[in-house]
Inverse folding.
């Protein structure tokens, strides 16, 4: 099974939370199926746990021939566990808390150019001033404004002399 | 010149000696009443006392005159000789002094030349040393100036950097940076993907 994660599911925490949601839903789905088979009245049945739109999309996507089976949910959970454990992870540090649109743009770019299910963790550090610091494994790419200012600090006196 | 002076003095001394000996002989003959040998050969005639007295007086006067004359002449000669000696001594002294002065001048000129030569060497060495010190001073001042300029530039850069970092970190708008962040990723895509591939 080849999953395509939603843009809103970017980090490993998001994948873990998604997995927990689906695991709760699978548990409910199994219990609800048993109750249905033994003839428990609908009013005594337990409401389904709330699940996020991303989880709903995944469940719809794995439902084979329009019918959802417990086996499909288990495979989905396994797949999410695999993604959480094995997918490449990137940490992007920004100068402030990233808004949703920016997160989606960056995640889309990474999944388009790096790996389809790459996990992106977002952090913030106000001293960066702008730009970003991207960390992948042992590689750190500092494309922040702070780094550029520090790197170009030697040019300040020359620039000031020209003023 | 000195030889002529000696000869002249010897002649004068000889003449004085001759005159003195003649005077002594005449005086001796007169006192002893002896006729002079060779002048009056043969028997003498007696001379009356008055004549004799008169002759004696005349001889005495003549002797005195001659003696005075000789004394005056000798005095004149002595004065002339003394003057000449004084002149010669002055001349010799002048020559000696002139020679000594000339030798002193030559020695002085030689010493002056040697001193000037030595002083010239010292002056050249001093000028060379002075130029060397000037060059080193200029070099040191230039190095010190560069060092100070570098220190000022460093402090200025640090101040500007600290000011920017302190000022800008309070006003961050990530929304306006979306396109910049994406363009940064695109710009470093090759480097980034290579790093990810190597890490994998």
């Amino acid at each position: 099974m080849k999953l395509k994660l939603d843009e809103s599911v970017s980090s490993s925490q998001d994948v873990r939370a998604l997995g927990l949601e689906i695991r709760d839903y699978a548990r409910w789905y199994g219990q609800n199926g048993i109750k249905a088979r033994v003839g428990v009245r609908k009013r005594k049945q337990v409401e389904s746990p709330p699940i996020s739109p991303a989880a709903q999309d995944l469940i719809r996507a794995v439902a084979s021939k329009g019918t959802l089976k417990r086996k499909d949910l288990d495979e989905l959970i396994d797949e999410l566990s695999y993604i959480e454990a094995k997918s490449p992870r990137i940490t992007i540090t920004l100068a402030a808390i990233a808004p949703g649109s920016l997160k989606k743009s960056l995640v889309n770019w990474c999944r388009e150019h790096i790996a389809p299910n790459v996990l992106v963790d977002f952090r913030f550090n106000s001293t960066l001033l702008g730009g970003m610091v991207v960390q992948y494994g042992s590689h750190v790419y500092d494309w922040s404004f702070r780094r550029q200012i520090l790197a170009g600090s030697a040019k300040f006196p020359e620039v000031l002399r020209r003023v | 010149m000195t030889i002529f002076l000696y000869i002249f003095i010897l002649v004068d001394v000889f003449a004085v000696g001759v005159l003195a000996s003649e005077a002594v002989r005449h005086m001796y003959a007169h006192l002893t009443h002896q006729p002079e040998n060779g002048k009056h050969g043969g028997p003498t005639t007696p001379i009356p006392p008055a004549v004799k007295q008169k002759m004696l007086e005349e001889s005495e006067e003549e002797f005195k005159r001659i003696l005075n004359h000789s004394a005056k002449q000798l005095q004149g000669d002595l004065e002339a000789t003394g003057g000449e000696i004084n002149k010669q001594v002055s001349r010799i002294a002048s020559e000696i002094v002139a020679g000594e002065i000339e030798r002193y001048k030559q020695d002085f000129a030689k010493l002056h030349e040697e001193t000037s030569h030595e002083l010239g060497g010292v002056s050249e060495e001093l000028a060379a040393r002075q130029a060397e010190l000037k060059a080193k001073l200029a070099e040191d001042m230039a190095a010190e100036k560069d060092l100070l300029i570098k220190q000022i530039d460093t402090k200025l850069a640090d101040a500007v950097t600290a000011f920017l970092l302190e000022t800008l970190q309070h006003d961050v708008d990530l929304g306006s940076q979306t396109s910049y962040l994406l363009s940064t990723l695109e710009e470093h895509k090759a480097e980034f993907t290579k790093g990810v591939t190597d890490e994998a």
Notes: Residues 12-85 of chain A form one domain. Strands of chain A lie at 89-94, 119-124, 131-136, 139-144. Helices of chain A lie at 12-38, 53-62, 70-86, 100-113, 145-151, 156-162. Chain A has six helices and four strands.
